[in-house]
Amino acid sequence: MKKQQQLYKGSLSAIIMKLLEQNGRMYGYEITQKVKEITVGEMNLTEGALYPALHKMEADGFLDVEMEKVDGRIRKYYKLTESGIKETDNKMEELENFVRNMQSIVNLKLT
Questions:
Q1: Where are the alpha helices (DSSP H) in 28-81?
Q2: Which keywords has UniProt assigned to this entry (predicted)?
Q3: Interatomic CA distance for residues 17 and 57, integer angstroms
């Protein structure tokens, strides 16, 4: 496992929520592929990490689940609820602050 995976793990729900905000609704495999595409293969989101995060967000009332039959199989689509949309805004703000602070630390020059 790449070292960055641990860093990404803390931001997992924010990543998922942002993707759902952008795409309306998505199913699990689609989320994993989109993350891989956006990060040019740097971040590999496993099903073992994704589904527990999705289930927790659903339990917290941030996601709605829609079942749809696709090619004879049931597919679960996830989309943000009203409170999920608000939470996404909060998470994006937290993430931006975190990135800004990390950038400041990375850019520190010894004086």
A1: 28-38, 47-59
A2: DNA-binding
A3: 9
Count of structural domains, the chain: 1
Longest Cα–Cα distance of the chain, Å, equals: 65
- Residue 11: other Cβ atoms inside 10 A: 16
**Could you report the per-residue pLDDT of 38-56, keeping only the tens digit for each?**
989 888 888 899 999 999 9
CA 35 to chain centre: 8
Could you tell me which of 80, 67, 70 has the C-alpha nearest to residue 25?
A: 80
Let me know if residue 111 belongs to a domain.
no
CA distances to 3, 9, 17, 46, 108 from 102, rounded to whole Å, are 16, 16, 22, 25, 10
Q: What is the CATH number of the domain that holds 98?
A: 1.10.10.10
pTM score: 0.83
